[in-house]
Write a structure and sequence with these properties.
Layout lengths: L6 E3 L17 H11 L2 E3 L1 H4 L11 E3 L2 H9 L2 E4 L6 E5 L5 H18 L3 E6 L6 E5 L5 E5 L2 H13 L4 E7 L7 H7 L8 H15 L3 E6 L11 H4 L8 H9 L3 E4 L21 E5 L6 H8 L4 E4 L10 H4 L4 E3 L2 H12 L46
């Protein structure tokens, strides 16, 4: 087998993606892409399934802010055997619910052997609020970001190398939006606020961070959609976060002139990214645009619709269309094996022929290794 091809899987949170819009329903796609690439970098949103999780040494659990910086070439990722996961609890969590989360941490220590601790509650409640934007995309805010940062910095000083945050989110058990979500439609109303929390803490601390919301358990729903079932298996969403962070890679800041050699073979340098996979209608995110700017092949999955319609055509990007994540995995495997995806499709476009009379623009005669489905080609890589 050829060397791994580090691949980014991006499934934006809170936009109602058909695949990855629920807790952990992006895991099958992530597992397949990890097998095809040999090295998959993705964010907690694609992997977290509440009480369920899947450990795979080929999958690297990287919070969204850090994933954006990795895609832009500002960070490298250093795989580790384990992290010491500090547990940051919102002071607004009721005592019984707080105890449930502490018991999850103790269970992960006793049953999985994870390194967890210390535990710290914020000095004041974080005051999380939720909202939906005009397009229906999930959003939210944190009333006391200062308290979050203070607690995170104290945990880092106490020796934590990764941070799991549990914030008290508002309950809304009677809402129509929640009822629709539990029946397999609508948007994850928690996702936008969760992203605000984890982005802020990761950026401030430079550590792997992820968030689990604290909510009162919902009443049993006999009509519950399978996509929503993972979120209702227990009292907390914390187990998957602790497992994911326990082996999340260290974040290594890069100087503008740094290269892969001084960092060692095990470190995943952004110059090694071989592909990025994202929903075809949600290509406006920072990681995707950074990869496109750097000439990294973009695989746009048409079979994962969402509320957004930010396509390659609208952005003027070159992309390889894939009907599903299964096809995307085949394309990643083709790139890993050095096969041009155009060789697997018909009609096969003819070779480009340059005229001897046409003045050279200084570019390469090769237009690039990855064709579009319509037979046209993107710009060559940087």
């Amino acid at each position: 087998m050829s060397r791994p091809l580090p691949t980014l899987l991006v499934i934006p949170t809170g936009i109602g993606c058909a695949v990855g819009g629920y807790a952990g329903d992006g895991l099958p796609a992530a597992r397949l892409l990890a097998a095809a690439s040999g090295c998959l970098i993705t964010h907690p949103n694609a992997l977290n399934a509440a009480a369920l999780y899947w450990s795979d040494p080929r999958i690297h659990y990287v919070e969204g802010w850090a994933l954006n910086r990795f895609a832009a070439g500002d960070l490298a990722l250093a795989p580790v055997a384990s992290q010491r996961v500090g547990l940051l609890l919102d002071a607004g969590i009721e005592q019984e619910l707080r105890l449930r989360h502490l018991q999850v941490a103790e269970a992960c220590r006793a049953s999985l052997g994870l390194s967890i601790g210390p535990v710290l509650s914020t000095d004041v409640p974080l005051e999380v609020s939720l909202s939906l934007g005009p397009s229906g995309v999930s959003s939210g805010r944190i009333g006391r970001p200062d308290a979050l940062i203070r607690a995170g910095e104290r945990l880092r000083q106490a020796g934590a190398t990764a941070i799991a945050v549990v914030a008290r989110f508002p309950d809304d058990p009677g809402s129509e939006a929640l009822a629709s979500y539990r029946q397999g439609s609508g948007v994850d109303a928690l996702a936008g606020a969760e992203a605000v929390i984890s982005h802020l803490l990761s950026r401030q601390l430079g550590l792997p961070c992820a968030h689990a919301p604290a909510l009162a358990p919902l009443s049993l729903d006999p009509r519950l959609d399978p996509l929503a079932a993972a979120e209702e298996l227990g009292h907390t969403f914390l187990p998957c976060v602790l497992v994911g962070l326990s082996r999340a890679p260290d974040l290594i800041p890069l100087r503008p002139v740094s290269g892969p050699e001084p960092l060692g073979e095990a470190v995943i340098h952004p110059s090694r990214i071989g592909a990025v996979v994202a929903p075809a209608g949600a290509l406006g995110g920072e990681a995707v645009l950074a990869c496109a700017e750097r000439g990294i092949p973009l695989i746009a999955v048409e079979g994962n619709p969402s509320l957004l319609e930010v396509s390659a055509g609208r952005l003027g990007l070159s992309a390889i269309a894939a009907a599903s994540y299964a096809e995307a995995a085949g394309l990643v495997l083709a790139l890993r094996e050095g096969l041009q995806p155009e060789a697997l499709r018909r009609p096969l476009p003819p070779l480009e022929q340059l005229s001897a009379d046409r003045p050279s623009d200084g570019g390469s005669a090769s237009p690039g290794p990855w064709p579009l489905r319509d037979g046209t080609r993107p710009h060559p890589p940087c």
